[in-house]
Write a structure and sequence with these properties.
The protein is α/β, with parallel strands linked by helices. It contains eleven helices and eight strands. The protein has an eight-stranded mixed β-sheet with strand order 3-2-1-4-5-6-7-8. Helix 1 links the parallel strand 1 and strand 2. The protein starts with 6 loop residues before the first strand and ends with a helix. It binds 1,4-dihydronicotinamide adenine dinucleotide and (2S)-3,4-dihydro-2H-pyrrole-2-carboxylic acid.
């Protein structure tokens, strides 16, 4: 019964805003049950209040008794300060959901009261339009009812995948960071389109529509990407020439390396924070 619950975001940056937008659009819970907090930027909170009709308050004014679900949405470097401030304020009923890249549920559980229900999720900024691909992994103490409740909440921002936490790094490399790869691709398409005589808006729109069409073909048909690619490629035609240039210029390798590098970075963040734990 999410309608009766209140969620508070600790952190009011890009990811929090994208999730707030999706949740409010979905109508899954009243906007007045969504609270955004940050440490001091009141203008940012007012902006979110005006845009989405939610509440916006500074972190130190948040009354945990009015909150059911706490979404951690600060940068990984700020996790310890956030957990320190939380641990004396929360009760066993609070559910803690983190969107932080590379911070494990074990790492969070260490900083919170014993037995606290913790989940680690990985959304992306397409949450803004309810088109995120979001991963969910539960911590040691989380109940199946809570996992399902959070999965339901996240369905407000797009498709949700329950995964093993070990898969979170590669999920982050593909889906958390992924929108940026497509925007980078679009930056190039827009630029070359303009260089070759299109106006910027037309180049932008045809590039985006082409990505959208290809994405829908992948989601709504059973053909593999290889089969779909072959259907576009006439022997000796324009696509064959384009693909040949992609191969010659390392297009496939570049895509694989982008995903692997992002996943590795997620692993590195985890390792860095686990190490701090051992040292303490
Ligand atoms: N931006 C993205 O596409 C995605 C980001 N993430 C994760 O989301 C988290 C936030 O990322 P962004 O929104 O891009 O960062 P951001 O820098 O835009 O926002 C971070 C916010 O946290 C606030 N903050 C820091 N400590 C706080 C505390 N103790 N209590 C309340 N607020 C606090 C800051 O004032 C700021 O408003 C990161 O950990 C990142 O790994 C996950 C998936 C995608
Ligand atoms: O760049 C980052 O670290 C965050 C996590 C996934 C997307 N943005």
């Amino acid at each position: 019964m999410l309608k009766n619950k209140t969620i508070a975001f600790l952190g009011a940056g890009s990811m929090a805003e994208a999730m707030i937008s999706g949740i409010v659009k979905s109508g899954l819970m009243p906007a007045s049950h969504v609270i955004a907090t940050n440490k001091s930027n009141v203008d940012r909170l007012n902006d979110l209040k005006n845009k989405y009709g939610i509440k916006g308050i500074q972190r130190d004014q948040l009354n945990m008794k009015e909150v059911d679900i706490i979404i951690l949405a600060m940068k990984p470097k700020d996790i310890d300060a956030a957990l320190d401030s939380l641990k004396d304020e929360i009760s066993p009923n609070h559910v803690i959901v983190s969107v932080l890249a590379g911070i494990s549920t074990a790492r969070m559980e260490e900083g919170l009261p014993e037995g606290q229900q913790v989940l680690r999720v990985m959304p992306n900024t397409s949450s803004m339009l309810q088109e995120s691909a979001t991963a969910v992994a539960g911590g040691r103490y989380v109940s199946m009812d809570t996992v399902l409740e959070i999965k339901h909440l996240l369905s407000a921002i797009g498709e949700v995948y329950l995964i093993d936490e070990k898969q979170m790094d590669i999920f982050t490399g593909i889906a958390g960071s992924g929108p940026a790869y497509f925007y980078y691709l679009m930056e190039h398409i827009e630029k070359v389109g303009q260089q070759e005589g299109l106006d910027k808006e037309t180049a932008r729109n045809i590039g985006a529509q082409t990505i959208l069409g290809a994405a829908r073909m992948m989601l709504e048909q059973s053909d593999s990407p290889t089969e779909l690619r072959k259907k576009v490629t006439s022997p000796n035609g324009t696509t064959a020439a384009g693909l040949e240039a992609l191969r010659e210029n390392g297009g496939g390798t570049a895509i694989s390396e982008a995903v692997k590098s992002a996943a590795r970075k997620s692993e590195e963040i985890s390792a860095k924070f686990e190490k701090q734990l051992v040292v303490q």
